[in-house]
Write a structure and sequence with these properties.
Layout: E1 5-7, E2 24-30, H1 37-43, H2 54-66, E3 70-80, E4 83-92, E5 95-104, H3 111-118, H4 128-144, E6 151-158, E7 164-172, E8 178-179, E9 183-187, H5 192-199, H6 214-230, E10 237-246, E11 251-259, E12 263-269, H7 275-281, H8 284-287, H9 292-308, E13 315-320, E14 327-335, E15 341-348, H10 355-359, H11 379-394, E16 402-408, E17 417-425, E18 431-438, H12 445-450, H13 462-478, E19 485-492, E20 498-506, E21 512-519, H14 526-530, H15 543-555, E22 559-566, E23 575-584, E24 588-601, E25 615-631, E26 636-645, E27 648-657, E28 666-680, E29 683-697, E30 702-716, H16 726-729, E31 732-744, E32 755-765, E33 774-788, E34 792-806, H17 814-817, E35 824-825, E36 867-880, E37 884-896, E38 918-929, E39 932-941, E40 946-949, E41 952-955, E42 960-965, E43 977-978
Parallel strand pairs: 1-3, 2-4, 5-7, 8-11, 9-11, 12-14, 15-17, 18-20, 21-23, 35-43
Antiparallel strand pairs: 3-4, 6-7, 10-11, 13-14, 16-17, 19-20, 22-23, 24-25, 24-42, 25-26, 26-27, 27-28, 28-29, 29-30, 30-31, 31-32, 32-33, 33-34, 34-36, 36-37, 37-38, 38-39, 39-42, 40-41
Helix pairs in contact: 5-6
């Protein structure tokens, strides 16, 4: 950069003519001025009519430079009439507007790595030296990924506004090199072939060399270290010294220098500790190195491990023996001491907080649960609990609070029984008498005051004062005041234990949005982006609002990256450009899922008709989801989904339009569905459906859904005579309007510990919508979760459903007029575990095939019902480790013929009575794995129904259900009304 002042003289004026002191008659900017008028006035104060002074011009140049928007400035002065013309000649500064890569790109590295490696930050000044360094960094990036012939050529494009420069790296990556036999040096103590196999650089069996990538090179070194680690050589060093590239053969020869080091043996002295426990708690195994800090951490971890088993006085030390005979021995000397049990934990002296509130903040926990048989206690825990309770009191105005504890190691005269008594001396509570907020002129002081944590008449706490500081600064920051400062002070008010608080604010300069600029869009329509930008020119510059807009763009799901920045952030201008640069996501995504169910269920295709209750079977399942994102550049999504298993075959195509009518949280979906289900023993069902659905999020926890659907349902593989009536088996057209409401206030939907979950599904099929059957359907669900202590959860769920038919066709009863696939079916892992899948409720007990005719033989096959009540209660508790839970459960309820048949009777009247309440109890296991949940439930039915199956009484036995399902693509609901 350079600047200067040039005095120009003309014609008759001599060189000695002094222009200083003359009046400025005109001010010109070459090229045209790029600053906002308010920023120009602030940076360059000289006005027409002012007297020309060298110092004033120099100050003006300094002010213009300070704006950060100029790379070079000079001032020229020449006579003009009876005064002078002042001309500022500037060279605008350019700013990074976006970075992208194009060309013949062989991944890895991917686009994100290229952009991050270039280190050209959006909105910062663009300089040629930064670009040259970026090219060199990218060339190194491609070389370490085996692309030694890669060519990186930057292409520059000036933006139309805001002095932006867009950089596109044109890349021709060329062919990727392959590994060859590495050079191995040092004291390896392993054969070269073993080391080579550990690198993974050559494909086993066929012995082809893999292509070079940075990740594969690093993983190869890690693989060698892991190989030595398996042999307990934890001090092994593997150094990749260099990669030698042969351009003629396009081969890379890694050079490895290895020092295997001695084997390391870690053993426990004076206490029995398994190797698995030592490997878990001594971090030298994870870090694959041995140093004193890691050994000290291991001693601390082992101390915590033994204290968790009741050895509260355990002492752990270590000693390292010098290596001998290729072996280094590390002894952990563990003096366990007496084993204790924390039998009692008392808290006394607390009046302001109850015991439960204090216990929530304590590490110590008395014995009593399955996982803490000896309680949890240590001297460190005791001191930490004292500190936590004291901090809680001080945060609520008890500045003089003291917390002490006394340990009784012979509680109630029992050796090894420990009691801890925590004594709280609350002291006086300090109160705020007055809060003064000074210096607030440009924001609403009253609004700030009402949101302060420190209020008059409330407890005084320095924690609240810190919270007030954050609140005030955040409020100013969000209103465009980046340099606001805040000072807080307090002093006694004159009343004992009462204080006055003084907050002093220095607001600083306010910044505004000059304009919002979006770049990088290719497929997405500009109008879709503009609707989500709530900042506009002239608004206060709010970084919080800026990042909220960025989050909305990410929530659209159509952008891989959204960068936002303030252009020229270090400049002194008060009007700033806000930049958004987009990288659109891949438009096609494919998801695959695999899973299986092992349970007692029946298939309508089963040839064994003598088993109406089904049999234990195995049902594998595969699913896929192919989506086309950002369809037509509107942010809409077209999805093709499918599920295939021995029990169900389903395919659907849907069109999702988010923000319908530009309302946040309102989405519209149009879908076509085909489903063929075989999971009911009695029949198979087929459904073809077209639907339009509008969903609306009313609040964070409440969502509504409204749906209009036309479907054609039909049944096949009917195996019992009572259903072989043309009006029951012929296809039925249904026109249905439905509404669904959900309220989810659970703390964790995947593993809730507290909260409420409510749903209500109401649908109406009527001839006015073209339906051949008329009925209403209501299904309500209420689930609650209560945490008992820290680890036990009581979960309860109640479901109630009813189908009310009307205007039954001639020859059918109201109950029969509901198509078989639309009836309620229940039983299985998700509803009543006392029944196999879809085996609850009414069964075939024989009925006239035609009105007034003879009855068919009773088969016992399930028929479904028009009403249901389920109630499930679970007590969930930790069983083994962090990922395995145990469950004690009780299920009750049934599927009933009609609403008026609902009964809470405990016993079955006869073999034709299924309208009573069935109870079951059992035990289950929940195991969370990285690929999906595994659950197993063993249920015992207390009062199972019996039925006549082909003339023979048969009971429905208790069911042992095991289920595994890998996380897969989401899909629409089951065609059956299966709870």
């Amino acid at each position: 950069m350079c600047c200067g002042i040039v005095l120009l003289c003309s014609g008759a004026l001599a060189q000695s003519t002094n222009l200083e002191g003359k009046r400025v008659t005109q001010i010109v900017y070459v090229p045209a001025q790029i600053l906002h008028p308010d920023d120009l006035k602030k940076a360059q104060p000289i006005q027409v009519g002012d007297t020309l002074r060298r110092s004033s011009v120099a100050d003006a140049i300094d002010g213009l430079f300070a704006t950060g928007r100029f790379d070079d400035i000079s001032a020229e002065v020449e006579p003009s009439g009876d005064g002078v013309l002042l001309r500022f000649v500037t060279k605008p500064m350019l700013f990074v507007g976006g970075v992208s890569s194009e060309g013949k790109i062989n991944r890895p590295p991917n686009t994100g790595e290229v952009v991050s490696t270039a280190q050209l930050t959006l909105g910062t000044p663009f300089r040629q030296e930064d670009l040259d360094q970026a090219v060199r960094r990218l060339q190194r990036l491609y070389r370490v990924n085996g692309l030694y012939e890669a060519q990186v050529t930057p292409e520059l494009e000036h933006g139309d506004v805001a002095q932006q420069m867009f950089i596109t790296f044109r890349i021709n990556s060329g062919k990727r090199a392959k590994y060859e036999m590495p050079g191995i040096s040092g004291e390896t103590k392993l054969s070269d072939s073993t080391i080579l196999r550990a690198t993974g650089w050559r494909i086993p069996l066929i012995n082809w060399w893999r292509q070079v990538t940075n990740a594969r090179t690093r993983n190869g070194v890690k693989g060698v270290l892991a190989k030595y680690g398996k042999q307990d050589r934890l001090t092994a060093k593997v150094e990749l010294q260099k990669l030698d590239y042969d351009p003629e053969r396009r081969r890379v020869k890694p050079q490895l220098n290895i020092n295997a080091g001695p084997k390391v043996k870690v053993q426990a002295i004076e206490a029995k500790v398994s190797k698995r426990v030592l490997q878990r708690y001594v971090p030298i195994y994870q870090e694959r190195t041995v140093d004193n800090d890691l050994l000290v951490e291991g001693a601390r971890n082992l101390r915590d491990y033994f204290q968790g088993k009741g050895y509260y006085d355990v002492d752990v030390d270590f000693r390292v023996h010098p290596p001998a005979n290729d072996l280094e021995v590390i002894d952990y000397v563990i003096a366990q001491g007496q084993r204790y049990r924390l039998a009692n934990l008392d808290i006394t002296g607390n009046k302001y907080f109850d015991d439960e509130t204090l216990r929530e903040r304590m590490f110590m926990e008395p014995a009593g649960t399955l996982t803490i048989r000896h309680g949890r206690y240590s001297e460190a825990f005791r001191k930490k609990d004292e500190e936590n309770i004291k901090n809680l009191y001080q945060a609520n105005g008890f500045r003089d609070a003291k917390v002490t504890s006394v340990v009784d190691r012979n509680y109630q005269g029992k050796a090894g029984s420990v009691s801890v008594s925590v004594r709280v001396d609350e002291g006086p509570q300090w109160i705020v008498d007055k809060v003064t907020l000074e210096g607030v002129t440009q924001l609403n002081a009253e609004n700030l005051r009402t949101e302060l944590a420190s209020l008059e008449g409330q407890p005084f706490s320095e924690v609240n004062m810190a919270s007030d500081r954050n609140h005030v600064l955040t409020a100013y920051y969000s209103e465009g005041f980046p340099s606001t400062s805040f000072r807080a002070a307090w002093q006694p008010s004159g009343v004992p234990n009462h204080v006055n608080i003084l907050y002093s604010v220095t607001e600083g300069a306010r910044q505004y949005v000059r304009d919002v600029i979006t770049t990088g869009l290719t497929t997405t329509r500009q109008s879709i982006v503009d609707r989500r930008i709530t900042l506009s020119a002239g608004d206060p510059l709010s970084p919080l609002q800026q990042t909220d807009i960025q989050k909305q763009f990410y929530d659209m799901g159509i952008f891989a990256r959204v960068d936002t920045a303030i252009e020229n952030p270090e400049g002194t201008t008060d009007h700033k450009y806000v930049l958004y640069n987009f990288e659109e996501a891949n438009r096609y995504t494919l998801g695959l899922g695999l899973g299986a169910q092992i349970a007692r269920f029946g298939s309508a295709n089963s040839a064994n008709l003598s088993s109406p209750g089904g049999a234990t079977g195995f049902s594998p399942q595969a699913s896929f989801n192919l989506s086309r994102l950002n369809f037509l550049g509107l942010g809409h999504t077209v999805s093709l989904r499918g599920v295939y298993s021995s029990l169900q075959k389903r395919g659907s195509i849907s069109y999702l339009a988010p923000r319908f009518q530009d309302v946040e949280g309102r989405n519209i979906t149009v879908a076509l569905l085909y489903d063929n289900s075989l999971d009911v023993r009695t029949f198979s069902s087929q459904r073809e459906e077209a639907s339009v659905q509008i969903s609306q999020r009313f609040s964070k926890s409440t969502t509504g859904l409204f749906r209009l659907a036309y479907r054609r349902v039909s049944v096949g593989n009917v195996v019992i005579p009572v259903l072989l009536i043309p009006q029951l088996v012929q296809p039925v057209r249904l026109g249905i309007i439905a509404a669904n409401f959900a309220q989810d206030r659970r703390d964790d939907p995947g593993n809730p510990h507290r909260g409420v979950y409510n749903t209500a599904d109401i649908s109406f099929a009527t001839k006015y919508l073209g339906s051949q059957r008329d009925f209403t359907r209501v299904l309500l669900r209420n689930a609650t979760y209560h945490q008992i202590g820290r680890r036990v959860v009581l979960a309860r769920q109640t479901q109630f459903g009813v189908i009310t038919p009307f205007n039954a066709p001639a020859g059918l009863t109201d109950q029969q007029s509901v198509p078989l696939p639309e009836r309620f079916f229940g039983g299985g892992a998700e509803s009543l575990r006392s029944f196999p899948y879809n085996q609850a409720g009414p069964r075939d007990v024989g009925a006239p095939l035609v009105p007034g005719g003879p009855s068919s033989q009773a088969t016992g096959f399930p028929l479904g019902g028009n009403a249901l009540i389920f109630n499930n209660v679970e007590l969930r508790f930790p069983l083994l480790g962090a990922n395995i839970q145990g469950v004690l459960f009780h299920d009750m309820g049934n599927v009933y013929s009609t609403l008026r048949d609902i009964s809470f009777r405990f016993h079955q009247r006869d073999l034709q009575d299924f309208n009573y309440t069935v109870h079951a109890a059992g035990f289950g296991i929940r195991y969370r794995t990285p690929i999906g949940p595994v659950r197993g439930d063993l249920s015992y039915s207390i009062n199972p129904p019996s039925y006549l199956g082909f003339g023979e009484p048969q009971p429905i036995c208790c069911s042992a259900i095991r289920m595994f399902r890998q996380a897969s693509c989401p899909h629409s609901a089951s065609p059956h009304n299966t709870a």
